[in-house]
Amino acid sequence: MRLHPQQRQSLELLPANTGLVLLTRHSIREEANNDMPGFDIPLTQEGVQLAREWGAALPHKISSVYSSHSPRCVDTGEAMIKGAEAEATVIIHEQLCEPGCYVAKMSVAGATFARVGPIEFVTRTLNNNVEGTFQPGEGTSRLLDWLMEIQPGSGEISLCITHDTILSTFVYNLAGKKNLQQEDWPWMLEGVFLWFAEDYIHWIWRGVSHQVSRLKYFEK
Fold first, then answer.
1. What beta strand segments (E) does the chain contain?
2. CATH number of 19-30+40-201+210-216
3. Pairing of the two strands 156-162 and 90-92
4. pLDDT given for residue 32 in this prediction
5. What pTM does this model have?
């Protein structure tokens, strides 16, 4: 496995004099037996090496690293730090942990996830059609608020390592996409670059730049 073909293209679009946030799925893990990979499923050696190489390829200095408490996310962060020869340490943050900022009642939403699988679950979440979840805009606003807080200074980048369900719900809610197909699903180690300006939220996903008014998520 490798990086998504358009992942490196995103680097060419990054502003040089702005602090960035990279919200990314963990690197390549061992295969799971079903659609609900266990908490302890680790990265493969290929996944560790890919994370090191990707960390080294980032043009901005890694200033901070936040992660889900899942070992494969933590190990992704540590490998990227090593590849970039950065001095950061991995900090666990609840916003990045499953079930994440989109699920209000895991005992309720989890049953739907187990029945329909991840892609259909996120599609239903984006359409506000899963009992036990928040409205997608509410969860996105919550995550954006935190990401804005950790945006670093010019020329630096904050890494945030999470899971496919959180990343996909976030990206496609920003994009206004309601129905997901297999090709939309985030690859392992695929991520979205973000930065916040006075009036707009900017992001780059799969080599394409986007922006949305901050008023959509922050009314004040």
1. 20-25, 61-67, 90-92, 156-162, 191-196, 200-205, 208-213
2. 3.40.50.1240
3. unpaired
4. 66
5. 0.94
Please give the share of the chain, as a percent, with pLDDT higher than 90.
Answer: 85
Mean pLDDT within 113-127: 95
Could you tell me how far CA 3 lies from the centroid of its own chain?
15
pLDDT at residue 95 in the model: 93
Nearest partner of 26 among 11, 6, 40, judged by Cα: 40
In terms of phi and psi (left: phi > 0; alpha: psi -120 to 50; beta: otherwise), the region of 128 is: left
Length in residues, the chain: 220
From first CA to last CA, the distance across the chain in angstroms is 44
Distance between CA atoms of residues 166 and 192, nearest Å: 12
In the block, residue with structure tokens 């680790």:
42
- The two tokens of residue 85 are 């020869």
In DSSP terms, 56 is beta-bridged to none
Do residues 14 and 7 make contact, with C-beta atoms less than 8 angstroms apart? no
Beta bridge partners of 66: 91, 160
Return the closest-CA partner of residue 18 out of 216, 215, 169, 201.
201
Q: For position 74, what pLDDT does the model report?
A: 97
Strands ordered across the beta sheet of 208-213? 90-92, 61-67, 156-162, 20-25, 191-196, 200-205, 208-213
